[in-house]
Automatic annotation (TrEMBL):
Domain (Heat-inducible transcription repressor HrcA C-terminal): residue spans on this chain: 115-336
Gene name of this polypeptide: hrcA
GO terms under biological process: negative regulation of DNA-templated transcription
UniProt superkingdom: Bacteria
Protein name: Heat-inducible transcription repressor HrcA
GO molecular function, one term: DNA binding
UniProt keyword ATP-binding, yes or no: no
Role according to the record: Negative regulator of class I heat shock genes (grpE-dnaK-dnaJ and groELS operons). Prevents heat-shock induction of these operons.
A Pfam family reported for this protein in Swiss-Prot or TrEMBL: HrcA
Keyword Repressor: yes
Family: Belongs to the HrcA family.
Keywords, comma-separated and alphabetical: Repressor, Stress response, Transcription, Transcription regulation
């Protein structure tokens, strides 16, 4: 199948070089780039007037813009996207960056949540941006389920996972429960549970209850459904969104109105308003994904960019994500390999502990 030519493919060498140098200059220091700056070390001998004409053409194409009354140009969001997709050179993380991330994984005795906390801090420190780490829910297969009555209005569901992990979750059972109905509910669940994670078991239970409504006692069915509702809630160990380094982003942006937008972004994140969408962003494709400004509604308000990568368990199932937020002028060539490397390390860590 023949590849459809892009705007980048149709540019001549001079236009491509002007565009690349303007973007690289902006990413390096955040300032507009003028024609006189470009003529100093351009690959061919051209006048500033010629460069200005090329820059005007690129502005007409929607790739460059003129901030305020400046004679220089900066890339637009469309221009940044085209640069990231077609011109950026992505290598491996530097040895120094790799060592800093590796150091957070060194303590094998720490629990996963503690390590992921340190990963978030390391990411924000290495990148000088804000880091996001979405921790996984416990997704090991369940081995056994038990219901324990504590009082008339309190009961405990005990979940024993195949990896030895045990979770106890309190809930309010339907009225009238008896030891017999609790045993029947547990037997019903344990007959279905083998090899299934909580999310897989939820779907199976709903289907089985609908098909076998007459076979299971009303009280036992109510108990199962009450427990099911609990599992669909956050429980005691929900996925968490760890945010680190917010001051890095605020200090980078500087302007008062930008600071307020960024504060609002972090308030939204800390209230987990879009936590499900964040994981869906990572789950939408393999490897690192880059969202620039308004390409993602979660970050459009602050005008920030997000570099995010999913991490997977041993079954190659996406269970969480790591990412970095920064201004649109992120050093993408450096940040992308750092995020990718970190996601791979976290995935290995989770897989080795499963």
């Amino acid at each position: 199948m023949e590849k459809t030519p892009t705007v980048l493919d149709e540019m001549n060498d001079r236009s491509r070089e002007v565009f690349r140098r303007v973007v690289e200059g902006y990413l390096a220091n955040g300032d507009p780039v003028g024609s006189r700056t470009l003529t100093r070390d351009f690959s061919e001998k051209v006048s500033a007037a010629t460069i200005r004409n090329v820059m005007q053409d690129l502005e007409y194409m929607g790739l460059l813009g003129s901030p305020h009354v400046s004679a220089g140009r900066i890339p637009t969001q469309v221009g940044l996207r085209m640069f990231v997709d077609g011109m950026i050179e992505i290598g491996d993380p530097t040895d120094i960056d790799r060592e800093k991330i590796d150091a957070t994984m060194g303590d094998n005795g720490a629990d996963v949540s503690g390590i992921l906390d340190r990963v978030g801090s390391a990411l924000s420190g290495v990148t000088q941006g804000a880091s996001l780490v979405l921790t996984p829910k416990h997704e090991a297969p369940i081995k056994h389920i038990e219901f324990v009555s504590l009082s008339q209005d309190r009961a405990l569901v005990v979940l024993v996972f195949s990896d030895g992990h045990v979770e106890n979750r309190l809930f309010t059972p339907p009225p009238g429960q008896t030891p017999s109905s609790m045993r029947e509910a547990a037997n019903f669940l344990n007959a279905l549970v083998e090899g299934k994670t909580i999310s897989e078991l939820q779907r199976t239970i709903t289907l089985e209850i609908n098909q076998r409504r007459q076979e299971i006692d009303t009280l036992a069915r109510q108990l199962v459904e009450s427990g099911l509702a609990l599992w669909q809630d956050d429980g005691e160990h929900p996925e968490r969104l760890i945010v680190r380094g917010r001051s890095n982003l605020i200090n980078t942006e500087g302007e008062a109105e930008n600071v307020e937008l960024i504060r609002q972004l972090f308030d939204d994140l800390e209230r987990k308003r879009d936590i499900a969408e964040f994981l869906e962003l990572a789950d939408g494709g393999d490897g690192v994904r880059i969202f620039i400004g308004s390409e993602n509604k979660l970050f459009s308000l602050s005008g920030s960019s997000l570099v995010v990568s999913p991490y997977m368990n041993a079954d190659r199932k996406v269970i969480g994500a790591v990412g970095v937020i920064g201004p649109t002028r992120l050093n993408y060539g450096r940040i992308v390999p750092i995020v990718n490397y970190t996601a791979q390390l976290v995935g290995k860590l989770i897989s080795n502990r499963s």
